[in-house]
Amino acid sequence: MRTRLCELLEIEHPIIQGGMAWVSTAELVAAVSNAGGLGIIGAGHMPTDILREEIRRTKELTNKPFGVNLMLLTPHINELIEVTLEERVPVITTGAGNPGSFIGRFKEIGTKVIPVIPSVALALRMEKAGVDAVIAEGTESGGHVGELTTMALVPQVVDAVNIPVIAAGGIADGRGIAASLALGASGVQIGTRFVCATECTVHENYKQKVLAAKDRDTTVTGRTTGHPARVIKNKLSREFDRMEKDGASVEELEQFGLGKLRLAAKDGDMEQGSVMAGQIAGLVKDIKPAAEIIHEMVKEAKDVIGKLQEVVLQSNPV
Ligand code: TUI
Questions:
Q1: pLDDT of amino acid 318
Q2: Which residues line ligand 1 (CB under 6 A)?
């Protein structure tokens, strides 16, 4: 299954592992890249020296391309950008903002730049600014989310731009990959499924919470802050809802949210921590090595596309 995205990124399968702060560290990233996908370190609010270590550890564990996700709401984002430039990371993805001001510096050293975009307007601006591809991420995703669904966003972005489009949000198996290709995407970004990869170093409680989640178990908190995030419902999300209903200020809500993702991902606190996951969590049923996840998804996608071709061949000519 080779697409334009595989040529661009020099990878075997058109599958990017979503960069997840506190969740996607060197072990998972290298496992995904070694299996022919593109692993991505989630920089999040990481201290700069830790990000450098993660990058170097990834380089030790794989000689395949990999990436770093830069979360643009991070207070020390400029320092994280410098480290990523110094380490000459092959690919960067960006989230939660517009990377316009620093695209050129990465392009100059040959780093591929792939922003997450929640709308056609931003996709067009990014294409003009010279990015290599865009990730069209629907509101089904875990973490920081936009308004549009993957099903509505992807084909509209595909029609608007001439660069490869990567579909994200609500994809966790081969059916999702086949559907994304049908919408015109050149590849997919998958986060939640990889939380339950053997190599993922997130706290075991987090993996179990994703495994136990059913279809309606996620919710979006923080809409009033302008930075809505999809999480698995728990004590923290109910408390957040209550504060928002009671008219808490943006500052109060942001202060309350500080450190909560780390609390879930590192300390395993499933009640007071922020357990970010996508709506597709209900489809994740087991923990297995990243390579198995990838190979099964690719096989399933090919089978699904084959079956669809049979449906077409068996139907009467119109
Ligand atoms: O970034 C993500 N997912 C994330 S970030 C995160 S950590 C976090 N910290 C504090 C508050 C909220 C989250 C957990 N998960 N996904 C990529 C993404 N980017 N989704 C939506 C967007 C986005 C939104 C607006 C990208 C660009 C954008 O542009 C606005 C503008 O500046 O024009």
A1: 67
A2: 21, 44, 71, 73, 95-98, 116-118, 122, 137, 143-146, 227, 229, 276
